[in-house]
Amino acid sequence: xxxxxxxxxxxxxxxxxxxxxxxxxxxxxxxxxxxxxxxxxxxxxxxxxxxxxxxxxxxxxxxxxxxxxxxxxxxxxxxxxxxxxxxxxxxxxxxxxxxxxxxxxxxxxxxxxxxxxxxxxxxxxxxxxxxxxxxxxxxxxxxxxxxxxxxxxxxxxxxxxxxxxxxxxxxxxxxxxxxxxxxxxxxxxxxxxxxxxxxxxxxxxxxxxxxxxxxxxxxxxxxxxxxxxxxxxxxxxxxxxxxxxxxxxxxxxxxx
Length: 256
Fold this sequence. Notes:
This is SDR family oxidoreductase. It comes from Paenibacillus lacisoli. Residues 15-195 form the Ketoreductase domain. Belongs to the short-chain dehydrogenases/reductases (SDR) family. It holds the Pfam family adh_short. By secondary structure, this protein is α/β, with parallel strands linked by helices. The protein has a single domain (10-245), classed as Rossmann fold (3-Layer(aba) Sandwich), CATH 3.40.50.720. The protein contains eight helices and nine strands. It has helices spanning 25-35, 49-60, 76-88, 113-141, 153-156, 162-182, 207-216, 225-236, and strands at 4-5, 10-11, 16-19, 40-45, 66-70, 95-98, 144-149, 187-192, 247-248. Strands 5-4-3-6-7-8-9 form a seven-stranded parallel beta sheet, with helices on both faces. Strands 1-2 form a two-stranded antiparallel sheet. The relative contact order is 0.14.
């Protein structure tokens, strides 16, 4: 990533990334990827305290400065408290990875209003509130990276995942629109929309269903979390500043 970040000349060791939902899966892989270059890493979680600490321990092995923070991303008040804590420790993010999200599987006819509101609040509202809270710091220094973790279903849609697909489609539109707002301030905004990835989000599928899923993918397998984190890292590079407003889908050729 080089010795310094962007136009502000900030050393790598003084550059901070905040990964929401960083206690497992793709989020954990992203946190470790940034820690591996010596960046300061903030791992957000809501309930998985011990899992977040385990990821933090893995990050510390790289010699990175690491902090874990707990917040319900449906709450603006809790996000503001998280921001105040990071500001106190001089760890406001230069790079924000909006990764936190929950899935929902089932027919739209069976979705309750409460389920709709909850998934929308975590996946879409949480991305909005975190971005709104942390982008002023990036704008003030005229440098920043916002990377939203979407899904291939936000591009193509999925039967029995209408609610989840709707949230990810919203994130894609949010990404494209915000990129136009923030480009004059030196802040890029992109989305990574993975296909099927080997994480606990697929735990509801039986072994034979996972095999059928793999067989549908031209690459013949599911993605590894590290393959997604590598793309996120690339988009965070200073040299990637001209890439903005893009929805990039690493999906093994599943959806083109």
